[in-house]
Amino acid sequence: MKRLAILPLLLISTFFLPVEGAVADTNVARSATPSASYTSPWESVAAINDGIDPPRSNDTVNRRWGTWPNTGTQWAELTWPSAQTIRSADVYFFDDDGGVRVPASWKLQRWTGSAYADIPGTYPVAVNAYNTVTFAQVSTTRLRVVLQSGQASVGLLEVRAWAADSGGSTGWNPPSHLVTPLNEVWQHQESTYPNLYGFRNYGWDQIMANGGSINYCVRWDTSATVTAAQRDQIHATLARQFKKWMDVMVGHNAWPYGNVPVKVVGWAVRNRSQLQWSDNSVDIYVNDIRENAPQCAEACGRFFNQNGNYPNCPGGASHHYDMSLWLTAGFGGGAGGDWGQRLGSEYYMNNLNTDNMTILLHEIGHSFGLDDFYDWTPTGQCCFLMKAGSASSITEFDAWMFRDWWRHLKSRYGL
Ligand SMILES: [Zn+2]
Questions:
Q1: Residue 149: is its pLDDT beyond 70?
Q2: Are residues 119 and 211 in the same domain?
Q3: How far apart are CA 88 and CA 133, in angstroms?
Q4: Whole-angstrom Cα distance, residue 408 to residue 183?
Q5: What pLDDT is recorded for position 191?
Q6: 382 alpha carbon to ligand 1 midpoint, in Å?
Q7: How many domains does the chain have?
Q8: Most buried residue among 15, 55, 91, 260 by CB atoms closer than 10 A?
Q9: Do 144 and 282 belong together in one domain?
Q10: Are strands 262-269 and 214-221 parallel, antiparallel or unpaired?
Q11: Centre of ligand 1 from the C-alpha of residue 366, in Å
């Protein structure tokens, strides 16, 4: 069940530069008072929240916080006059390749009111970049970065603490046992797909561009005929499966839609006579061949018009399609990406009334950015839809991975 085309698509989308840092909520570090276990007299702890993005870990231009010659456990801390609700942080290490190096390890702690408590998460150590940690949101007046020295003393150039813009039941509140595996998944995706944040054609982008709906083209990549009744069943099945993912989002974390209608606007075939209906409820495209399969007009396809304008689409923008349901005779498994989903036409027709059409659900997951898990498994998880072959329907973990995508993208839409 490979995702196929999403990889080349990620590569060809060069319009937007990757954004460093996971969440574009509010960086509340700027309003905090910094302090530290120790600061070398020529350095400044004020560096850590001065809002200056360092040019590199060996920053020779801006002020820095460093502990030379002290080693062992060192810390720097942000203190606010009132509690802040924080759900991720970015840390930029100071490393001059001499007396100050990246730490052997580090962690964040929050002040509970009476003690410091560790914030569970995965803590990367990279030079020349922000190191991002996401976690179940915490409310605290103090956030401490605890560094365990390695080859030398330690230091920081900048800390960003991102405040959730909504709290309570509408915010980011996964079950505690899923926090670690979710963080692992997100970091794996960030490291695997350098253009994760630059790519602008996820299913999320498509729905938001349409104001809460999705349009499809059916690529009928088979010589079989289709009756009007079969057509309507094909549409209904697609809508029913798509809805299973959308239902995961209802009422969650500022997701604005209670229902995301699926509308099939077009069918693509090799020969018009295969389609045994005469009504004009869908646009019909005959023998427009790409990838050796029929397609709806490129002028109407979001994949080919990622600015969301369709000046040459017959019938105008309302006849555009965001994704294709590509049904190929004799095709085993599936493929999914921002362009839609591909699966065997026989499999699809044989499962029109199946509650969970597993391959389609899996491939729709890819269309919203979810990754495969061929070579690793997140901590504590065994079986879920996106780990092909291990589950037949959307599990709680799949649902939270899906919501995690929304959490990280929603600021794009001003939410
Ligand atoms: Zn897959």
A1: yes
A2: no
A3: 5
A4: 12
A5: 95
A6: 16
A7: 2
A8: 91
A9: no
A10: parallel
A11: 7
Residue 260: count other Cβ atoms within 10 Å of its Cβ.
Answer: 20
Q: Looking at the structure, tell me whether residues 215 and 349 fall in a common domain.
A: yes
Distance CA 249, CA 258 (A): 8
- Parallel, antiparallel, or unpaired for β 105-111 and 130-148? antiparallel
| The length of the chain, given as a count of residues | 415
DSSP letters, 252-267, are STT---S---EEEEEE
Residue 183 lies in a domain: no
Shared-domain flag, residues 366 and 284: yes
> What rounded mean pLDDT belongs to the chain?
90
Distance 342 CA to ligand 1 centre (A): 11
Name residues whose C-beta falls within 8 Å of residue 114's C-beta, 6 or more positions apart in sequence.
Answer: none
Closest among 79, 355, 338 to 201, alpha carbons compared: 338
Residue with tokens 């926090």: 179
Same domain for 142 and 225? no
Please choose, from the candidates 387, 273, 279, 267, the residue with its C-alpha nearest in 3D space to the C-alpha of residue 326. 267
Q: Give the mean pLDDT of 283-306.
A: 97
SS3 132: strand
- Average pLDDT rounded to a whole number, residues 116-126: 87
Residues 6+ apart with CB under 8 A from 115: none
Q: By residue range, what is the domain housing residue 359? A: 203-413
Residue 187, both tokens: 């970091």
Instruction: Report the pLDDT averaged over residues 227-255.
Output: 96
* Residues whose CB is less than 8 angstroms from the CB of residue 6 and which lie 6 or more positions away in sequence, other chains included: 336, 337, 338, 366
What would you report as the CA-atom Rg of the chain, rounded to the nearest whole angstrom? Answer: 25
**What is the C-alpha end-to-end distance of the chain, expressed in Å?**
33
Tell me, yes or no, whether 137 and 270 share the same domain: no
Q: What is the CATH number of the domain that holds 157?
A: 2.60.120.260
Mark whether 123 and 242 lie in a shared domain: no
125, part of any domain: yes
**Which residues hold their Cβ within 5 A of ligand 1, which is an ion?**
1, 372
Q: Report the pLDDT averaged over residues 44-60.
A: 90
Compute CA distances 241 → 89, 234, 255, 350, whole Å: 36, 11, 19, 15
CATH number of the domain to which 360 belongs:
3.40.390
